[in-house]
Amino acid sequence: EVGDLEVTFSVNGNEVRSLDLSSVSHNIKVDVTINFDGIYWNAISNKEWCYIDNEEVHRGSDSFNIVINANNGFEDRETAVITFVASNYKKSMLAVDQRGNVFVLDQVYAASPKSAGSLTTKVKTFDTGDAWHFECDSWITATKGAVTTANGETYTDVTIVWEANEDVSRY
Q: Do 90 and 83 meet the contact criterion of CB atoms below 8 Å apart?
């Protein structure tokens, strides 16, 4: 009888009812334990940004992966709900929250020749530009430049300068 069905979701061996995630993309394995081995079930999500990797039908205790796309906006996302479905039995099992981004880079990476060089890019934040800083290796420097504000967002020009590299690749 479905009324006696017991279902638990676990991540890394810990039972979970909610996940509070950073703005980056995630792929999370969820282990599902149920007390009836013969029950066929699947998991569904109510948000496109948080989806089930393979919506296959499972039988008994099993696992599935949740894929969470990166949140490139500054606002926290509306909660996604992962629901356990076994025929007509539906139970909301897991609330997934994802925070907004702290900053967005105009240019995420650059490839350069072995010679020295530089580039200027923009960093978009909610603050005035004073609340963040750089951590760089000795061969590279980053300097904040002009700051402009529009529509509640702050744009800071950033100039990145790197030294010549005659030896090996650097990352």
A: yes
Which amino acid is present at 35? N
Query: What single-letter amino acid sits at 115?
Result: S
Sign of torsion, CA 75 105 156 149?
negative
pLDDT tens track for 1-51 = 456 899 999 999 999 999 999 888 999 999 999 999 899 999 999 999 999
The one-letter amino acid code at 104 reads V
Contacts of 127 (CB under 8 A, 6+ apart): 154
Burial class (CB in 10 A: 0-12, 13-18, 19+), 123: buried
Strand partners, 68: 26, 50
- Tell me how many degrees the CA angle 138-143-145 measures, rounded to the nearest 5: 175
